[in-house]
């Protein structure tokens, strides 16, 4: 009976998905949100709500903001069609329509939970309300970065708007290398002329944005003794873009998602690609190491360090180790970034920094020049380098700008997607051949067997060295620096730092210990910051089979652990 009830629920939900959205329309046309962040990290927010108020019994609208965790909501005001509302010190939800007309107020349930309220005032088809308020501050200062992680459109907003746009501006144009993710809706998020723009194009559950700025960008008064990854790992649970800054995926946050997916495909015969969830299904096929629990998890071996490069083979061999050690990291993106640093280190390519000032809102014209083919490449690395050669061949001078590379990758996204799907298999094949893992058949029910992948003793040692080397780089400033006789070894370390996704942080630590590294190393901070644009272009293009955005797209699931949220509507 329980399974029958569940199947009925799945069938009903499946029908809801295919009913036209207009069948549920409540006349909530849109929310447009503009966020202006000052140097102190304070967010000055303006929201525009357009709602058809002709056919409801409500007397007021409200926006509920929860999960503030010490952030303050200040200076709230409302206007409609250019007419300013008057404040009410004590907001009473039981007052009638006329008593609330052209008035606004707030209800503070606690320091963590507030309603911003205003009277509907007119029964018009297109009431356009303008809300203004501050979040003080909206930027969180972390140990390694400054972060914005806020839910601007609450998950409990009823009704949901047909669409929304969130535009985030800073006191200076936001750098194109700023990492960005969005959660809770079908749509995209991009950097447009120095502003982050998140825009819905389909279903909406919430509108949550996660941005990573270089540490010290803002003089925020709110700090936490955490790293960006502490938030990012939690946010990516249930999200669908762990290999890059995103491809929009229609997933669900609850445990019924796999069954719901099967029901949709079975009942309606709809292909997976129609919902942009192919990437999520592929992600579920990542090879799991069956005996991984025999090794203390990453957090429990945080004190274990290994002060040498852990592996002398091809970087791609380690992909299976990386995805099991750090399952919520952007491992494919990191691998591509590591390849770029490796090619620079070997002299195979040059990164040519654009020295010209093109104005605040113009892209710099950094270029990559190919000198020769790298030696001893692995299968995946060789294929990726071939894309770089292809892009160079389309340029008259052979120099590859970021935009030229992006254009080439988008034309070839299908073959790149295939490559991204092969990386697990290639890594497994190489680890098997070198004795780091083995396949063991285990008996299952009804006489069946299942082949599982186990780390060998040699593989467990590699796993511990791999994690230990990341711990070593994370804690580099506190080690015995006399162990380093030649600072050029730091260039090799930087390649692994990229593989771990910590290249910029590691570079800062190396320069703090060896100030001369800033002048004599292969890399500089500008290069690290901007070379990631090329690697991100590669991974983003590989995910472009659905809802692709130039800067990254939204995941319908995930997004846990941030600030803000709540709901609102009418009452």
TrEMBL record:
Residues 1-25 form the signal peptide. The keyword Signal applies. Keywords: Signal. The keyword Signal applies. InterPro entries: DUF2207, YciQ-like_C. Pfam families: DUF2207 (PF09972), DUF2207_C (PF20990). Transmembrane segments: none annotated. Residues 455-509 form the Predicted membrane protein YciQ-like C-terminal domain. Residues 31-201 form the DUF2207 domain. This is Predicted membrane protein (DUF2207). It comes from Anaerococcus octavius.
């Amino acid at each position: 009976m329980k399974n029958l009830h569940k199947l009925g629920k799945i069938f009903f939900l499946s029908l809801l998905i295919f009913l036209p959205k207009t069948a549920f329309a409540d006349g909530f046309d849109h929310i447009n949100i503009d966020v202006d962040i000052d140097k102190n990290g304070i967010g000055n927010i303006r929201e525009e709500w357009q709602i058809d108020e002709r056919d409801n019994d409500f007397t007021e609208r409200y926006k509920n903001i929860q999960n503030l965790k010490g952030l303050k909501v200040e200076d709230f005001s409302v206007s409609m069609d250019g007419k300013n509302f008057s404040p009410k010190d004590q907001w009473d939800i039981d007052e009638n329509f006329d008593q609330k007309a052209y008035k606004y107020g707030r209800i503070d349930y606690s320091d963590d939970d507030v309603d911003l309220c205003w009277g509907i005032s007119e029964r018009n088809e297109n009431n356009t309300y303008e809300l203004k308020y501050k979040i003080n501050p909206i930027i969180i200062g972390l140990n390694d970065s400054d972060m914005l992680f806020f839910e601007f459109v609450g998950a409990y907003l009823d009704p949901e708007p047909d669409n929304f746009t969130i535009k985030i501006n800073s006191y200076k144009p936001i750098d194109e290398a700023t990492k960005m993710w969005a959660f809770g809706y079908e749509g995209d998020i991009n950097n447009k002329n120095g502003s982050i723009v998140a825009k819905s194009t389909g279903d909406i559950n919430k509108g949550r944005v996660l941005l990573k700025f270089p540490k010290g960008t803002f003089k925020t008064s709110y700090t936490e003794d955490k790293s960006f990854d502490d938030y990012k790992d939690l946010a990516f649970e249930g999200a669908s873009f762990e290999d890059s800054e995103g491809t929009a995926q229609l997933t669900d946050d609850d445990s019924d998602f796999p069954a719901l997916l099967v029901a949709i495909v079975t009942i309606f015969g709809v292909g997976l690609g129609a919902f942009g969830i192919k990437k999520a299904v592929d992600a579920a096929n990542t090879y799991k190491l069956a005996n991984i629990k025999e090794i203390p998890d990453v957090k429990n071996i945080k004190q274990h360090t290994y002060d040498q490069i852990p592996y002398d083979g091809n970087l791609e061999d380690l992909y299976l180790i990386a995805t099991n050690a750090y399952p919520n990291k952007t491992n494919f993106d990191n691998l591509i970034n590591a390849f770029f640093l490796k090619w620079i280190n070997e002299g195979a390519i040059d990164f040519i920094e654009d020295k010209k000032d093109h104005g605040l809102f113009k892209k710099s014209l950094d270029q990559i020049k190919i000198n020769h083919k790298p030696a001893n490449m692995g299968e995946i690395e060789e294929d990726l380098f071939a894309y770089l050669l292809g892009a160079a061949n389309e340029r008259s001078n052979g120099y590859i700008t970021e935009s030229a590379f992006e254009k080439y990758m988008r034309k070839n996204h299908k073959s790149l997607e295939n490559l991204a799907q092969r990386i697990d298999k290639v890594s497994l094949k190489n680890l098997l051949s070198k004795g780091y893992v083995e396949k063991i058949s285990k008996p299952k029910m009804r006489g069946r067997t299942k082949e599982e992948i186990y780390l060998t003793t040699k593989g467990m040692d590699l796993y511990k060295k791999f994690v230990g080397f990341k711990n070593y780089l994370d804690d580099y400033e506190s080690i015995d620096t006399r162990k380093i006789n030649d600072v050029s070894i730091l260039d090799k370390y930087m390649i692994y730092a990229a593989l771990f996704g910590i290249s910029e942080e590691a570079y800062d630590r190396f320069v703090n210990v060896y100030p001369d590294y800033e002048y004599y190393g292969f890399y500089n901070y500008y290069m690290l910051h901007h070379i990631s644009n090329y690697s991100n272009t590669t991974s983003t293009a590989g995910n472009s089979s659905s809802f692709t955005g130039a800067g990254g797209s939204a995941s319908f699931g995930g997004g846990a652990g941030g600030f803000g949220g709540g709901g609102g509507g009418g009452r």
